[in-house]
Amino acid sequence: MSLLNYSAVKARALYSYTGGNADELPFVEGDEIAIIDRSDADWWKTEQGGVVFIVPAAYFEVVEG
């Protein structure tokens, strides 16, 4: 079951990020991902393949939602 729901928003990466821990999603500048939780000001949550990862909020801009 996907964790995505109606509160998810699309965000675009402003910078590339390699991730430092297993729970951090690596991405490259320009990637668009669905953010499922923005309750933490510093780290947002996204879901990929049924697994929840965190991404640094400062690296993204919301483009939809």
Walkthrough of the structure:
This protein is an all-beta fold. It is 0% helix and 43% strand. It is built from no helices and five strands. It has a five-stranded antiparallel sheet, with no helix packed on it. The radius of gyration is 11 Å and the shape is globular.
Defining traits:
single chain; 65 residues; mainly beta; five-stranded antiparallel sheet; 5 strands; 43% strand; globular
Which helices and strands appear, and what pairs or packs with what?
Layout: E1 9-13, E2 32-37, E3 43-48, E4 51-56, E5 60-64
Antiparallel strand pairs: 1-2, 1-5, 2-3, 3-4
Report a brief summary of the structure.
The protein has about 60 residues and is mainly β. The protein has strands at about 10-15, 30-35, 45-50, 50-55, 60-65.
Annotation field: number of helices: 0
What's the arrangement of strands in the largest beta sheet? 4-3-2-1-5
The N- and C-terminal alpha carbons lie at a distance of: 22 Å
Average pLDDT over all residues = 90
What portion of residues belong to β-strands? 35-45%
Please outline the major beta sheet: 5 strands, antiparallel
Helix content estimate: under 10%
Total number of beta strands: 5
What is the CA-atom radius of gyration, in angstroms?
11 Å
Low-confidence stretches: none
Shape: globular
The topology string of helices and strands comes to EEEEE
Which class do the helix and strand fractions yield? Answer: mainly beta
